[in-house]
Amino acid sequence: MKMRLFMPIAVGMALLLGLTAGAHAADKIKAFASFSILGDMVKQVGGDRVEVTTLVGPDGDAHVYEPTPADARNLAASNILFVNGLGFEGWMDRLEKSSGFKGPVVVASKGVTPRHMMEDEDGKSEEITDPHAWQSLANGKIYVANIRDGLIAADPEGKAAYEANAAKYLDAINTEEAAVKDTLGKLPKDRRRIITSHDAFGYFGAAYGIEVIAPEGVSTESEASARDVASIIRQIKAGKIPAVFIENITDHRLLDQIARETGAKIGGTLYTDALSAPDGPAPTYLGMFRHNIEALSAALSS
Ligand SMILES: [Zn+2]
Q1: What per-residue confidence (pLDDT) applies to 302?
Q2: Cβ(108)–Cβ(84) below 8 Å
Q3: What separation in Å is there between the alpha carbon of 218 and the centre of ligand 1?
Q4: Cα dihedral sign, 287-27-55-146
Q5: Which value, in Å, is the radius of gyration of the alpha carbons in the chain?
Q6: Which residues surround ligand 1, an ion (CB under 5 A)?
Q7: How many angstroms is it from 171 CA to the middle of ligand 1?
Q8: Which stretches of the chain are DSSP H helices?
Q9: Sequence-ordered list of residues with C-beta below 8 angstroms from that of 92, at least 6 positions apart, any chain
Q10: Which helix (H) or strand (E) holds 195?
């Protein structure tokens, strides 16, 4: 008799515990981030209160991403959307419309000074906005402030937590920024020139004094012209470019070919528009900087 009474109570308790755990998970703010670098930044600022879904994951190329119906369902189930902006996610408007998402949209790059450049497209010269603002840590701090303010607006109860997380993260970014400037500042002036496949280091180069030449332009959508490739090969042969770097997000056949034809050394892999897998060498925004700086410094020190 005692057992019979006890069992339903135990079952009831288990159910109650299960429901409480479920309710706790459901209480988290569901954030949707367009690509892995931004997803990591949202995780750092959101901490325990936020569950982050990242659309374009590790080693993925956001320039040419094609959203799926499952992406639209995930976005529809989210409370807040984080995008880079500056034309990076050309497919996002369509995804937002098809998902029916009506929540707040935080443009992480809001307030950065955009870089513009002229690019030849089908024989016409056009002005293009460079979207890769995260590659400067000074801009990364603007991203963090925008993420913090967006989360506070969406979840005012978490204000103190978001402010504390952001402050701690900004400290870490400041420390990394000083280390980057120190390490790259030691490189000889005539060796501060590299080649990557697409032009993702405009902000990086301007911030840290490295000249970056990229046959593909600011988007991986465009292809390198034969004239650009020939010009790069001439520059390497003239001894003006010490190293060629492949990128984690792009096909590296063109750079392999350039390296073969010129004898230039491949300086390693740079993480440009996406992080590595969690167990790889660049699993976070700051980890990506540490990895890239190490690779550049090893290849460009004399
Ligand atoms: Zn890019």
Answers
A1: 67
A2: yes
A3: 6
A4: negative
A5: 23
A6: 200, 273
A7: 27
A8: 2-27, 36-46, 69-76, 92-99, 137-154, 159-185, 202-208, 226-237, 253-262, 285-300
A9: 34, 83
A10: strand 193-195
46 CA → ligand 1 middle, Å: 25
Structure tokens at 217: 């332009």
Residue 118 structure tokens: 């002229």
In the reported structure, the alpha carbon of residue 107 is separated from the centroid of ligand 1 by a whole-number distance in angstroms of 17
Ligand 1 centroid – CA 7 distance (Å): 59
- Mean pLDDT value of segment 126-146: 96
CA of 139 to the centre of ligand 1 (A): 16
Q: How far apart are the first and last CA of the chain?
A: 84
Tell me, what's the pLDDT at 218?
82
Asked if residue 59 lies in contact with residue 277, where contact means CB atoms within 8 angstroms, the answer is yes
Whole-prediction pTM: 0.88
Contact 163, 148 (CB under 8 A): yes
